[in-house]
Design goal:
- By secondary structure, the protein is mainly α.
- Helices cover 70% and strands 0% of the residues.
- The protein is built from eleven helices and no strands.
- Helix 1 packs across helix 2, helix 1 crosses helix 4 and helix 4 runs parallel beside helix 9.
- It starts with 5 loop residues before the first helix and ends in a 6-residue tail after the last helix.
- The mean pLDDT is 88.
Length: 201
């Protein structure tokens, strides 16, 4: 069998990263390399031609998942040009939906990867990418006021913490009436908060 072309090798690598980003969100980063490669439609032996280690793939897949989240938010802002609150309300509605609860593979990496990242070494690249992604997501949810101090991003952190916590709890209680009640309650509180922004100090 002939050698794989550089273009094909790049395509294979991209496929593995995209597959890993989905499967890590759905099943966790403990998933084996063999299972990842099988899901990618590639042989196990090809993995180490593309990646130095599984940790290297976790790093890259985490970055890919957060890049998808950033693109999704940017698309929402574009659809609601000049209407930041409407864009954030749409984001909250979609985030705290039954569809998002039931599809972690295509969902928020901040929620889906939280438990795995808590077990990563503090100095790991995956933890760094995750932390940066969480900070960027919180900033996107923060109020935008001209008189706002640079370090006053608490509103975005509170919104993200509420959204993420509600999503994780709703997934953990799926199948009970409590699951959708958690989503509905968090969504209502967050949207009410957008309409009644806190006054600046």
């Amino acid at each position: 069998m002939g050698r794989v072309s550089q273009q094909q090798a790049e395509e294979n690598r991209r496929r593995v990263v995209e597959t890993a980003a989905r499967l890590f969100r759905e099943k966790g980063t403990h998933l084996s390399v063999a299972d990842l490669m099988k899901a990618s439609g590639l042989t196990h032996g090809g993995f180490y031609k593309q990646f130095a280690s599984k940790d290297a793939l976790i790093d890259e897949a985490t970055a890919h998942a957060f890049a998808e989240l950033t693109q999704l938010h940017a698309a929402g802002l574009e659809r609601h040009a000049g209407q930041r609150d409407e864009a954030r309300q749409t984001l909250i509605d979609n985030y705290l939906s039954v569809e998002h609860r039931d599809n972690p593979a295509d969902g928020c990496p901040a929620a889906a990867l939280a438990a795995d990242m808590a077990r990563e070494p503090a100095d790991s690249e995956a933890r760094r990418v995750y932390t940066e992604g969480v900070g960027d997501f919180a900033a996107a949810l923060a109020d935008e006021r001209a008189d706002k101090e640079a370090d006053d991003d608490a509103d975005g952190l509170v919104r993200l913490s509420t959204m993420l916590g509600a999503l994780v709890l709703s997934r953990a209680t799926k199948g009970s009436h409590l699951s959708e009640e958690i989503l509905d309650s968090a969504r209502a509180a967050l949207i009410r908060g957008l309409r009644e922004p806190s006054s600046s100090s």
